[in-house]
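Sanity check record (used in CI):
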Amino acid sequence: MEFIRQLVEISPNPIYVRDELGKFVLMNDAYAQLHQQSASYILNKGFLDSDYSYESDLEIIKSNNQVTIEDLFEQENGQQIWFNTTKKPFTSPDGARFLLSTSNDITTFKKSILEKQEANQIKLQFVNNLKEEFKADINTIVGLTRLLKKGFISVEQEDYLRLIQSIADNLLDAPDHVLEFTKLQTGDIVFKATTFDIASILHYSTSALVTKTEDHKIEVQIGELPNQLPLVQGDPYRLNQIFTNLISYSVKHASKGQISVGARIQAKLVKIVNVEFSVRVNNWNSNSDKLESIFASSTKPDGNEHFTFDNLDVRLKICKKIVELQGGKMWLKTISNQEKEFSFIIPFPIKEEKNESGKPEIPENSDELKGLHILLAEDNPANQLLVISQLKYWEAQVEVAQDGVEACEKARAKPYDLILMDIDMPHMNGIEATATIRKESNPNQNTPIIAFTANASKIDVNRYKESGFSDYLFKPYPEANLYLTVARNVITQGEENLVKGSAESNLLSSTIHNQEPPTITPLESALEPITLEPALYDFSGLGNLAEDANFVRKMQQLFIDLVPSQLEKLSFSISQEDWSTVAHIAHSLKSTYGNIGIKGAAQAATKMEEICNKRNNFSDLDNLLKIVNSTTDKVIAVFQEQLHSTINS
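Expected output for histidine kinase:
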């Protein structure tokens, strides 16, 4: 025992032992000197006059758990000393409880980390300040360009203005990409953990870029996806960012042609699924040397990577880094001189589909919408019920405006965190209402406004931007798309939660990095085609609400109450050749049918709206009306039977 005491006393590392009452029973000079006193003085007294660790030490003895912490001592001369301290409770042979504390000086190591963090913070602040300095000037260029495009200009002048606007948009994006890449390199970035549907993100990413790709005469399509893609936990925002960057990069380097987006299950364990994604371009027209060099180099943060300020290159590096930080791998496959394919694998934890309570489940770590005050401008009662119910499950507060006029009135009266604005409304449409809100002085002049549109194929993004919309969402939509669109327009980076990888995920990550890129199966031949009888309706698109029996009954009853009268008005308007009214009713029905997966009727309503807007092929309306009426009768019969059974039970 005396030998152990001597070892403690001569150790250069601060060491002490205290009993379960907090009294010091053993201490060396290295610890006492930190408090500018001698060990014998403190031991005779039993306590320190100022002992910040007294309460915590007693808690550790009580819990009987070892802890390791970082301690900072600031001496009278201002010198700071950092220690890595381990505190271990133990019991003596006579049953008495004690705590042993040992510390190692890590000051040099800690200072180097803090200096590096400070340097990184200065770098990030510099880039952010640079962005803000010329953001206003570039926005002025963009605004003037849009004004000029509204005037009488030739086709050639319009092309010049489009080029100027494209360059300005690219310059505006560049600082964000540099800032993002810098954060990725320094590790100053976090990933969210939320449950999402992979297919929904693919559809969202491709549809959001439809205008950009159409301007370059490029078609973007999604290949046939596996039927059994599970719900996964991960960061849907980052997955969307990867696809947006890859598609945008491909558009810049392709001439006309086609871009195919796909996903397949590469490997699956009990709780983890490796999903392989691909973006294939079939008409590549740029030199591939630089592209291949990006994928040949490592993006690990060793500080030695050569960094260039090519905005397109930075986009690719961001994608590669995001994949690698999630334990995945990304590579380039050259199929021919004109055909390239970007592929990457990300391991995702599988979401266990259990709901023992029978109530809808709010995704874990998904409280970004909690407490938000949202204004919904929507005239369709079915859409109102759906959106309000979904937002309330995420604990957001919702107010409803029935048309654009009421939306403007409410926007003048009080501030909202976000506004969801339907485009096709009576009295004043969503575009006019949004332009009014942006133009007038009111509490919501700078509030994010999301466009609700059912015209996914012909969305005019530039027109929406000019009107003041912050973002847009297609109807009908998967639940994840509503959450994704609202969240990304209101959350701040400080609210993001770090995703902690499991041991199983790390194991799979190691497997991914040690294997060669797998052989890519062409998207069109990945699965054998299967012919299935289409379902009469499908509530799965409602997400969590599909599990809520009360909500489903409300949707069924609302469908029974509203749709027959709408069809009567539709039939009458066709007989009166009132094509504007026909288009408006068909547009509303399209959303109603689409929300609950009545695909045949939704497609027929969509076609009716197109016919009336284009003012041609009116002879097809009668047949389309028969399809809508027949399908509706079948759905109502099923709904009435289900509601009747529920009442009897």
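The first strand starts at residue 15 and ends at 19. If this sentence no longer matches the regenerated tokens, the check is flagged for review.
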